[in-house]
Design brief:
single chain, 352 residues, alpha/beta, CBS-domain, Spore Coat Polysaccharide Biosynthesis Protein SpsA, Chain A, 26% helix
């Protein structure tokens, strides 16, 4: 591994969680190795470490060392690293010199197949919206059928769930619904789909009422304009272990202001200055794990957004929680510029 590539895997002990998340997104190993001021290895951190830390109450501005594994597996030679790689589940093994400084990282030459354990719970897809942010495309095609690479977005979503044996699919439709149904009626489509027709627009949540007395177990609920490449097993485990009525899958986003930001006091006095600051926030992906009881919080023929339904659930004293994912694990096509990014990401994944 050349020196520039090596630097992508190494982070200072002073770095915070936010920086670690961005750096993990930028390399292919899913891990960072933390070094002290002498460049000696003192820990490693993965996205799983970060998620567990955040879910335990840690903050995104905390030091990455707070979430790190301080006893990582290491090797002293390339041969030893290859042996560790072949012997276990390790993906990236640091190779240290006699001083404990990382001189190389072995990441393996063969691609390991991703393991998908069966979840087998229903999927509910809200596919009834007009997709006005994607005009003029959606004047011709409904949003679920907008092509992204080899398939329309709704089929990408279904294929991702099928990896976890989630084959029972419920789709709520309205705008250009006959086109959506016609696509899945083609002879080579073998999906097990139940259709629910909205007579009038019911928002991002009201259509769930159509599933009353039709669904009796935990289910995934998703809009049809995003794709999640996270560990669905861990999401469902988290939802069940914590007794949530709704688990909202959220993504950490970082927004950098390209200007110096000024806080002004009386008479124009400058109280503080910060050059090109960055802000971190947790954003709703529009993907949820839901208990069927939530449907009872929706009225017949009610036009309502799902976040408003969540508020009703919370106001009733029921438990709602967020499950954080990295920015690279979520793809959105709700706007034209995001659609182009999604196209590029899926193209890169096909090349891997």
């Amino acid at each position: 591994m050349d020196i520039n590539e090596l630097k992508r895997y190494i982070i200072s002990e002073e770095a915070d969680i936010s920086n670690a998340m961005q750096r993990i997104d930028s390399n292919s190993g899913g891990v960072l190795f933390i070094v002290d001021a002498r460049e000696v290895l003192i820990g490693c951190i993965t996205d799983g470490d970060i998620r567990r830390y955040l879910l335990s109450g840690g903050g995104i501005s905390d030091r990455a060392m707070n979430a790190a594994n301080t006893s990582p597996n290491v090797a002293r030679s390339r041969e030893e690293a290859i042996g560790l790689y072949k012997a276990g589940e390790l993906i990236s093994i640091p190779i240290l010199d006699e001083s404990g400084i990382v001189r190389d990282i072995y990441i393996g030459t063969e691609k390991r197949a991703t393991k998908y354990s069966s979840i087998d719970i229903p999927i509910v897809i809200n596919a009834g919206g007009k997709g006005t942010r994607l005009f003029p495309y959606t004047k011709v095609l409904p949003k679920p059928l907008i092509p992204v690479g080899d398939y329309p977005i709704i089929e990408h979503i279904i294929r991702e769930f099928k990896k976890y044996n989630c084959n029972r699919i419920h789709i709520i439709v309205n705008y250009k619904k006959q086109l959506v149904k016609a696509y899945f009626a083609e002879g080579d489509k073998t999906y097990n789909i139940c259709w629910y027709d909205e007579d009038s627009p019911l928002g991002t949540g009201g259509g769930l009422r159509l599933l009353k007395d039709r669904i009796f177990e935990t289910f995934f609920f998703t809009n049809c304009d995003n794709l999640l490449k996270a560990d669905y097993n861990d999401i469902v485990r988290f939802h069940r272990e914590n007794g949530n009525l709704v688990t909202m899958i959220c993504v950490y986003k970082t927004f950098s202001v390209p200007y110096g930001v000024i806080q002004m006091g009386e008479c124009g006095e400058i109280k503080s200055m910060k050059e090109k600051p960055s802000f971190n926030f947790l954003a709703n992906t529009g993907i949820y794990v839901v208990e069927p009881e939530v449907i009872d919080y929706i009225n017949d023929d009610e036009n309502i957004g799902f976040p408003d339904i969540i508020k009703r659930v919370r106001d009733a004293g029921k438990k709602v929680a967020a499950y954080p994912v990295r920015e690279s694990e979520w793809m959105d096509m709700g706007q034209l510029e995001e659609l182009e990014i999604m196209q590029e990401k899926l193209s890169d994944m096909r090349k891997e």
